[in-house]
Fold this protein.
Amino acid sequence: MSERETATAGLTENLSALVRHRAPALVACYLSGADEPNTRPFLSWAAANGVEVLVPLSRPDGLLDWVHARGGTEEVGLFGISEMVGDVVDPSVFQSVDLLLIPAAAVDRSGMRMGWGRGYFDRALASLEEQPPVFAVVYDDELRESVPAENHDRPVDGVVTPRQILEF
């Protein structure tokens, strides 16, 4: 098994374990890009196990719309990132998310998350009336001692890597 396949298997197991432990009614999870930890096997596991998942669609105005991840087809969206094709849910549905799994370039051991610089997930988090537990999904070497932070940055509650689940 290649290093990437091993990482994907570990990540899928840890994401599944987190969902089994927390038993959320609704999860929001990103659809991974080519250089990110692969979330697709987790999304397949969720669909096979009756876990309702929303995935984001990037909008030109810097906000996210959300669609159900029930085995939909993918197409290239903004910034060349694959996105799930589907009907956009009412924003109130996103407000009821019980667990949010988000991408990160790096996360430090205090929970500070460094994103990719576009602020989509920072704005999505800020839009929530009540924030559910938020876990960043990264490779093991993207968990750092510290990362730079700006005023708008919000810490996450935990991190999921191919080797571990850490709650802060």
